[in-house]
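hiii so um. not sure if this is the right channel but i have a protein structure encoded as C-alpha cells and i wanna go backwards to a sequence. like what aa goes where. can anyone help
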C-alpha cells in the first residue's frame, strides 16, 4: 500500500467516533438552556468526532442555518462575530444573575457562579472579533 492511499478505519472505530459525536452534540444541546454548562466546546468536539466517523453528520452540522456559521468561524478563523459575542455574554449574565437572585441561596455558590461567569466573559472577549467581510 502506498503512502498516499487512505485506509478506511474499522467499523468499530467509526461507530465509536459517531457515538462520541452524538454524545457531545447531546451535551451541547443540553447546555443551550442551562447557564454555565458549555455548549460550544461540546459542539466543537461533536464536529471533530463526526469529521472522523460520519462525514454526513459533519456536513449537516456545518451547513446548519444556526449552528454552521459560528462553528465555521471558530473552526476556520479562530474568531467570533460581534453579534455572537454580544448575545453570548448577555445570555450568560442574564442566566447567572437570575440564578443568583432567585434560585441560589448559598453565598459561596453565588460567588462561584459570578466568578465563573466573569472568567467565561473574559474568554469570550479575548477571542478574535470577526468582521462581516471575514
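sure thing!! here u go:
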Amino acid at each position: 500500500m502506498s503512502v498516499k492511499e487512505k485506509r478506511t478505519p474499522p467499523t468499530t472505530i467509526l461507530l465509536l467516533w459517531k457515538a462520541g459525536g452524538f454524545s457531545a452534540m447531546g451535551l451541547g444541546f443540553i447546555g443551550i438552556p442551562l447557564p454555565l454548562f458549555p455548549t460550544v466546546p461540546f459542539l466543537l468536539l461533536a464536529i471533530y468526532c463526526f469529521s472522523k466517523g460520519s462525514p454526513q453528520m459533519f456536513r449537516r452540522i456545518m451547513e446548519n442555518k444556526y449552528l454552521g456559521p459560528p462553528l465555521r468561524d471558530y473552526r476556520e478563523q479562530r474568531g467570533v462575530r460581534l453579534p455572537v459575542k454580544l448575545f453570548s455574554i448577555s445570555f450568560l449574565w442574564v442566566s447567572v444573575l437570575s440564578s443568583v437572585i432567585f434560585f441560589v441561596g448559598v453565598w459561596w455558590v453565588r460567588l462561584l457562579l459570578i466568578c465563573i461567569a466573569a472568567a467565561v466573559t473574559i474568554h469570550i472577549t479575548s477571542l478574535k472579533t470577526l468582521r462581516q467581510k471575514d
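oh and The helical segments are 11-30, 40-53, 55-62, 68-77, 82-103, 107-126.
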